[in-house]
Each structure stands twice: as structure tokens, then as C-alpha cells.
Design a protein that fits this description.
The structure is a single chain. The N and C termini lie far apart (about 35 Å). The longest helix has 21 residues. With about 190 residues, the chain is an alpha+beta fold. The strands form two sheets. The chain has a five-stranded antiparallel beta sheet with strand order 4-3-2-1-5, covered by helices on one side. Strands 6-7 form a two-stranded parallel ribbon.
Length: about 190
């Protein structure tokens, strides 16, 4: 069950902590969209959050018909993550607070991550090619490592050329879980259509 969102009036960021099969996730949104997803092992950058006000009505955040876009985004992100982990959602339809258009190699690579289909994977070389610089394999790895929106922007779908999963911000166990989770739901969907 999500905890109540908190709002910071100085940075106009709102955050919400939600439970998931990979542990608690901290979601951060602005009026532009979802800006960060943090794993439990990470220290969220909520430097101004000490001045946050506590919103006590959690249901308000989930049934938000209010003009507060950040709350609406957090509500949608919470619901869509729950659907993803239940196996009923294959992609996310959320406003994202990311650079547009993607100008740097890193932002182009992070944008290209959204093209990797559910239940499949690319190598770091394929990601570098999709971002416009086939030789920038290490930079592609760095783009994955600094992806501010893991799970939603699926950097977990990028693996090493030898087939091993490679590093992941949330840790190798979470990356393996996410890859296996998607494969399991693809198999279940395929076997259910026979």
C-alpha cells in the first residue's frame, strides 16, 4: 500500500513511496511528469523535502481529479507499476519529466531504452547503435546506470553481449527478477492463447 505523498513547494516535486515485489520504490514527480524512480538501496535526492508538507488523504492521491499534475502523475505511476508487477501491463503510459528532444548521447540512449519490447533484451552495443554511436558501448552502459526512471524506462532489458545480465542500479537480483518476470508473463500469455 502506498504511503502518503509529500510535496516540496520550493522544487515543486512530489514524492510517493510504494511497495513492490522488488521492495519499496520512491516515485518523484514534478508538474512536467515522473522524474525519478528510486530503489530501497538508494538515497532519494529529496534535499528540499525537509520542508515538505504531509498530505494525509492517500485516497486523494489515488483518485486525483485535482489540477495538481504531479499528484496525478504519481497516482498513475503507482497504478501502472502495480499492473506491471501483476503481469497485465507491458508498457507505461506516463508523462515523463525528461529532456526533449534528447540532445546528448546519454539522453538519446535513455530515450532509445523505451523502444525495447517487453520480454526481450538488447545488448549494450545495440543500445549504442540505437542512440547513434555504435562504438559508444561504455557510454551506453553509463546511460543505463544513470537512467532516472528504472522499470518505467526499461534499462533492465539491456544485457551484456555474452548474455549475462550485467550491472543494475537496483542490484543484480532485481534485474534478474525483472527479466524473469517479463519472460514468465510472456510464456503464460503464449500458452494461454493456444
Amino acid at each position: 500500500m502506498p504511503t502518503a505523498p509529500r510535496k516540496d513547494s520550493h522544487t515543486m516535486r512530489t514524492w510517493l513511496s510504494v511497495d513492490s515485489p522488488v521492495g519499496p520504490l520512491t516515485l518523484v514527480a514534478s508538474v512536467e511528469g515522473l522524474s525519478h524512480v528510486y530503489f530501497r538501496t538508494e538515497e532519494p535526492d529529496l534535499s528540499e523535502a525537509t520542508k515538505a508538507t504531509h498530505i494525509t488523504n492517500v485516497e486523494f492521491a489515488h483518485d486525483c481529479q485535482n489540477e495538481d499534475t504531479a499528484l496525478t502523475v504519481l497516482s498513475s505511476a503507482s497504478r501502472q507499476l502495480a499492473e506491471y508487477f501483476a503481469g497485465s501491463r507491458k508498457s507505461f503510459e506516463l508523462l515523463l519529466d525528461v529532456p526533449t528532444p534528447p540532445l546528448t548521447f546519454r539522453s538519446r540512449a535513455q530515450h532509445a531504452l523505451r523502444s525495447i519490447p517487453y520480454g526481450t533484451h538488447w545488448t549494450y552495443t545495440q543500445l549504442a547503435q540505437a542512440a547513434g554511436s555504435a562504438g559508444a558501448v561504455r557510454a551506453a552502459g553509463s546511460a543505463c546506470a544513470t537512467n532516472p526512471l528504472p522499470i518505467v524506462v526499461p534499462c533492465h532489458r539491456v544485457v551484456r553481449a555474452d548474455g549475462h545480465s550485467g550491472a543494475y542500479r537496483g542490484g543484480p537480483d532485481i534485474k534478474t527478477f525483472l527479466l524473469e518476470h517479463e519472460q514468465r508473463h510472456i510464456r503464460e500469455h503464449t500458452s494461454g492463447n493456444r
